[in-house]
Design goal:
heterodimer, A: about 350 residues, alpha/beta, Immunoglobulin-like, 2 domains, four-stranded mixed sheet, three-stranded mixed sheet, B: about 70 residues, alpha+beta, Alpha-Beta Plaits, 2 helices, 4 strands, globular
């Protein structure tokens, strides 16, 4: 999922679910600041400063949290099984969060992590602070009380397995939630129980979309061709014409078999040289991996069937030597999240 | 000091649970309010000389929550 989609999710769905309590705290903090301001004019113009400082500090804190989550997730890059388990757990957590928002069953309430009382009390006291930096500190502290949609995004940031991608994910999401806080923080003073059914449904749908996207990658990582993308492409190919090989992991056009080839990691995924990468069953193969600017998970090239993974940073290269499977068929390779994929045909 | 536990339904998120605690603790005489979102329960410790059960329930109902004493 790209950063822009995450921003849009935050903009339309994330803000409302966070507003119930964080908005109330912000309103309380603004009220405290205003007590210090003398004139009515100061009161009106002055409310921008606490709101903006609250939002900037909140954005910075969540970005740092995203970086930490991405770094934590990178530990799971070490083994393919660990990655599959991590991604699957994130999918279960996201689906649970979404089902809770849709109020499908009371059991799903347990998927939402409630902050401990000691934390909420600390934050509440901070909302009553009259210090100049009170709202900013409060904004940063909201990192301790993430709401449902934010928790689901945090799970996604963890699965990116990269500090940069994790940080960007949280930055984009929180930035998306900010306009609503800005508008209501500046122009409205009472923000009570804004989270209602319609907004919760929108948030749930956005989370389910993120979960499906993650599930797709997880299935791909297990080496199975039955990914959501492939199923959708198959349906598309059944009802209209499409070129063979469009379905990753299924039929591909075989080229001339080679014993040495190159995979380029680019901004848009993987490119191979030769384009139709074909190898002979059971033969020794040398694969040069060159990273020409692919960031995030694309840097971790994975071949699930062979249980191998190579992390190649931007501007770096590596060589992977392996013995081709004895059984002819497609050999899928992908990034560590299963997002970017490619095929080697074994004949 | 007295402690009472309510079942509070139609809580939409953990934020609502936090809001309930914040609101109840604003009432004079309420020492502590603790809401568990998953179990939909609020436990309130209060000073009966300063506030009665009725006022606490009224406050919760005023916030549009359905309340039942357990």
């Amino acid at each position: 999922m790209d950063i822009f989609s995450i921003f849009i999710t935050g903009l339309f769905a994330g803000g409302i679910t966070c507003l119930a309590v964080q908005g109330g705290l912000l309103a309380s903090s603004i009220a405290q600041q205003e007590e210090n301001l003398a004139s009515e004019f100061e009161k009106r113009s002055g409310s921008w400063i606490p709101v903006v400082s609250f939002l900037v500090a909140r954005l910075v804190a969540y970005t740092i949290l995203g970086i930490l989550l991405g770094s934590l997730g990178s530990l799971f890059q070490l083994s393919l099984t660990a990655r599959v388990i991590l991604q699957l757990s994130a999918v279960v957590f996201m689906v649970g969060t979404a089902f809770n928002l849709l109020q499908i069953h009371p059991l799903f309430r347990y998927f939402v992590i409630q902050p401990p009382k000691i934390v909420t009390r600390l934050i509440r006291n901070q909302s009553r602070s009259q210090e100049l930096f009170g709202p900013a500190i409060l904004g940063a502290m909201t990192v301790l009380i993430p709401c449902g949609a934010t928790q689901a995004t945090m799970a996604y940031a963890l699965t990116t397995g990269s500090p940069v991608a994790g940080g960007l994910t949280m930055f984009a999401f929180i930035l998306g939630t900010s306009p609503l806080f800005l508008l209501l923080g500046v122009f409205a003073r009472s923000l009570n129980r804004l989270a209602n059914g319609a907004f919760n449904t929108a948030a749930a749908m956005a989370i389910l979309l993120l979960a499906t996207f993650n599930l797709n990658g997880t299935i791909a990582l297990t080496g199975s061709p039955y990914t959501v993308t492939n199923l959708l492409t198959k349906i598309e190919c059944t009802i209209s014409f499409c070129s063979p090989g469009k379905v990753a992991g299924s039929t591909t056009t075989a080229g001339k078999p080679v014993s040495e080839a190159t995979i380029f990691i680019t901004q848009n995924g993987y490119e191979t040289e030769p384009t139709n990468l074909t190898i002979k069953a059971g033969s020794k193969v040398k694969l040069n991996i060159i990273n020409r600017g692919g960031g995030g998970c694309a840097q971790s090239l994975t071949i699930p069937k062979l249980n191998v993974q190579r992390v190649v940073s931007v501007g770096q290269s590596d060589v992977l030597e392996f013995t081709a499977p004895k059984m002819p068929g497609p050999l899928a390779f992908m990034c560590s999240m299963g997002m970017y994929q490619g095929i080697i045909t074994v004949i | 000091m007295k402690t009472i536990t309510f079942k509070v339904t139609n809580l939409e998120c953990t934020s609502c649970a936090m809001s309930i605690d914040f609101d109840l603790e604003d009432l004079k005489g309420v020492v502590e309010a603790s809401t568990n979102y998953a179990r939909q329960r609020t436990t309130v410790t209060y000073d009966p000389e300063l506030i009665d059960q009725k006022s606490i329930i009224a406050r919760l109902k005023n916030l549009n929550y359905d309340v039942k004493i357990i």
